[in-house]
Structures are given as structure tokens and as C-alpha cells.
Amino acid sequence: MGTVQVAPLDATLGAELSNVSLKDLDDASWRVVEDAFNTYGVIVAHDQYLSLDEQLAFGARFGELCRNDASRMPMRPDGETPDGGFFAPVVGNVDKDGKHHTDAEDPYIRSGIGNNEWHSDSSFQHLGAIASILAGVEVPEEDGHTEFADMRAAYDALPAETTERLAGLRAWHSVVYSRVTLGALDRDLPEDLTTLPGAEHSMVRRHPVTGRPSLVIGSHLAHIYGMDDAEAHRWVQDLIDQACQPPRVYSHKWREGDVVAWDNRSVLHRGRTYDYSQRRRLQHVRVAGEVEF
Ligand code: OGA
Ligand code: MN
Fold first, then answer.
1. 174-223 pLDDT tens trace
2. Which ligand 1 atom is at minimum distance from the Cα of 121?
3. Residue 272 in contact with residue 118, Cβ under 8 Å?
4. How far away, in angstroms, is 3 Cα from ligand 2 center?
5. Nearest-ligand number for the alpha carbon of 137
6. How far is CA 106 from CA 73, 101, 103, 223, 243, in A?
7. What SS3 state is found at 84?
8. pLDDT digit string (tens) for 120-154?
9. Is the pLDDT of residue 76 over 90?
10. Which of 85, 31, 19, 87 is nearest to 62 (CA)?
11. Which protein residue has the closest C-alpha to ligand 1 atom 3?
């Protein structure tokens, strides 16, 4: 197929790959793809039409795939059970049995609304996730974009007093916290949010390959050690609002056959709403983290 081409997108992150077939990557092509992933944080390839097995095989090139039992999420109403298989949920309004959910109040749709807030996948786990990979199976004609924001460029743009304040701060991330605050899970929150299942991380991390520092924030962040919760939540929301602005944001309009992979170590993402009478089904594969942060 010749050499994979890498074209940076019009933002501080993201690159589009062309002249590439992700289902049969030779080692030289993989090195180009991996390098683009680490450098740009988000890679986009059109016309790939991967089967789930092909998507899992592509994911396995990044590292160990997440398994259901290690990626325990609040169950979706159609009962994705932790059975020890790979964590490969479908995302959108068409469930794994092909049923199309059209009502915004439908439990299936409600259970997915957490994806619409800026987050880093699996930040509520000790090692987080390296990569997430979405494939466009059925896509709405309009809207339903996935957006990505560059937490390296966001960190670089912070004033010195903020980077000084962030240095050394640790925070607790919990998916139960984010789901409850968004109304996707009906449960009382405890006084001490660190008693919720989750994981502790620093608020700044260095990318293990590029060495670039980035901000570790997002909707799963429940508590900052040493800070009052209300104040911490306001501050984190401010940081997210500032960080997720142009030129640090890429908004992906889905086409069938697309594959988008992003680096959860340096990028936040969120889904956007759409007309639920249109079908949206994206296939998700996730790669487990390997270093503490
Ligand atoms: C995800 C996610 C957003 C979207 O799959 O992890 O957050 O656009 N998806 O559906
Ligand atoms: Mn996500």
C-alpha cells in the first residue's frame, strides 16, 4: 500500500491518516500510526470498515485490551455483564441486539449520557486507559459528533500561578460520581466522595513517550485532596471550560467505516447529541493503561 500519510488537522491535536488499511498493517506502517497517535493524540482513518475482531486486533497493537471484568461500569439496562471477555461496548442509540432507541428518556439512552461530558476513559481506574478506538458502524446524517480536546496544549496555556497550584495535587476519580451527578445513575452520594469506587491520580501527568505534561481533569474527577469539594468542583469546571476551547478542540463528524483512536493520557473527549430518530452505533474497543499517574 505504500507509505501511510499523516496530515495534521486544523487544531493543536489530531491527524488524518490516509493510504492506510488498519486491518492489515505491516510493522513499518504500524510504527507510523503509533507515532502519529503519540504525537497528535487523535488519529482518524476513513473507509476502514473493521469487523469487531479486526478492531480488537488493531487495539491489541497499542497494548493489553481492557476486559469486562477489569472495566466494570454501571451496567447498561441491556445488561452488559462482566464475563471476562473484552470490553467492547456499542455506543449510541442502537443496542447490541440492533434495537433502535429513540426516546431521550429511554433508560438505554439515559445510561449513555455520561459520554456527553468531557472525560478521559477509565480515569476512574488505577492505570486509566491508553487508547480508545471507535469505529463508525451506523452514523446519523447530522450531529452526533465526537469532540476531542488537547490537555497538553491546555496545560501549556495555563498561567504560572495555576501550574504551580496544580503541581503536587492529587485527585480521586470515580465513574459512580460522574454518573450520579449527571443523572445517569440514581444513587445517593456519600459525604466522603473518596469512599466511592475509583482511583487516585495526580492532576498533571507526563506522557510516557513524548514527555509532554498534560492536565488530568474531566467529569470523573470527584475530589481533590486537601480541598473543599464545592470549591474543587467549581475550579475543575473552570479548568475544563478553559481547556476545551479552540484551537485545542477537534470535532469529528462520523462517516460509516471511520476509525478514530485517541490517547486518553493526553486528550479529553465527549459525544454530542443528535436526533434520536436517526441511528447511531459506534463500536468501542479500549486499551488498558500501563503506568500510574
Ligand atoms: C466513548 C465515548 C462519545 C461518543 O465511547 O468512550 O465517550 O461520541 N463516546 O459517543
Ligand atoms: Mn468515553
1. 999 999 999 888 899 999 999 998 999 999 999 999 999 999 999 999 99
2. 6
3. no
4. 31
5. 1
6. 19, 7, 5, 30, 32
7. coil
8. 999 999 999 999 999 999 999 999 999 999 999 99
9. no
10. 31
11. 271
Is the whole model's pTM more than 0.90, yes or no?
Answer: yes
Distance from the alpha carbon of residue 114 to the mean position of ligand 1, in angstroms? 9
Q: Which residue has the cell 452514523?
A: 139
Q: Which grid cell sits at 111? A: 445510561
Residue 2's pLDDT is what? 79
- For residue 1, report the distance from its CA to the centre of ligand 1, in Å: 31
Q: What is the pLDDT of residue 75?
A: 37
Mean pLDDT, range 251-267, rounded to an integer: 98
Is residue 222 within 8 Å of 196, Cβ to Cβ? yes
Which ligand neighbours the alpha carbon of 145 most closely?
1
Distance spanning both ends of the chain, measured CA to CA: 38
* DSSP annotation of 246: T
Tell me: the pLDDT tens digits for 223-232?
999 999 999 9
Ligand 1-lining residues (CB < 6 angstroms)? 91, 115, 121, 132, 134, 146, 269, 271, 282, 284
Nearest residue (by CA) to ligand 1, atom 1, is: 115
Tell me the CA–centroid distance for residue 270 and ligand 1, in Å: 6
The closest alpha carbon to 233, from 243, 224, 242, belongs to: 224
Q: How far is the CA of 161 from the centre of ligand 1 (A)?
A: 33
